[in-house]
Amino acid sequence: MSDPAPSKPRSHGRKSISASAHPQDLMPPAERRPGAWTAKIITLLPGSFPGVLGESLTGRALKDGLWHLETIDLRLYGEGRHRNVDDTPAGGGAGMVLRPDVMGRAIDAAQAGTPTGWPIVYLSPRGRPFDQATAQRFSEAPGVTFVCGRFEGLDERVIDHYGIEEVSLGDFVLTGGEIAAQAMIDAAVRLRPGVLGNEASTQDESFSRGLLEHPQYTRPAEWRGHAIPPVLLSGHHGEIARWRRRMAEEITRVRRPDLWADHLERRDGGDENGD
Ligand code: SAH
Fold first, then answer.
1. What does the pLDDT look like over 123-159, one tens digit per residue?
2. Which of 111, 200, 212, 242 has its CA 20 to 30 A from that of 151?
3. Which atom of ligand 1 is least distant from the CA of 169?
4. Which CATH architecture has domain 24-189?
């Protein structure tokens, strides 16, 4: 709006705009499996994806088409010649706020053609803290659209208009939502079938049964005078399972009284399969 009138018509200067032109080019051509879980990310920094998600197990799964990543460059939906995406806060104060009209266009582009039950998530320190249950829910949706904020954040009307779910990575403030989005996508993708080599491992690990995981050891059997707990070398599967269970309970009780209280309530209070 504040742009001076351009001396010549520039509208054709907006090259062909596709929702994911730039970042898709960075991605190796993945086999597109129809219906594979998809993360759509609205961001001013599309070059920051796939980032660490392109490595190791999540990266392998991405290349194999077990999931897809689509970035939507918010800048392409900006206003005017400079494609402005932000403006000063109504009521005054420091910083800049992402404009609702710009973000609305990007969200409309992201959501076009998505099936129902496709959540829109705004990464936000004001959101509900992310946890394993949320990762599980995201992984069971057909896909998730992540809105990465920058500056002071997003105009509240966008959140209200689309009924966007706000989710926080934790009680600290990041400069943008991209790292938080990568963390959440990692946690969701590894729950998708076929992503981890050993699917049993997601059932035992921290949080999945409301307990933190037991300690892990590997060779050598003795390291700098420290031995592996003998029970783990006993070959007695029943005793090993009991030891692990006891350690998981002890670690949870000491480190996370909040999880421990929930665990006791579930165990003592209900019809839960309390093994
Ligand atoms: N003024 C905001 C913080 C803005 S930080 C406030 O005080 O609440 C800029 C952007 O970083 C946010 O819009 C959000 O998308 C992202 N962000 C910052 N901290 C985050 C966190 N803990 N979890 C998820 N996203 C976060």
1. 999 999 999 999 999 999 999 999 999 999 999 999 9
2. 111
3. 23
4. 3-Layer(aba) Sandwich (3.40)
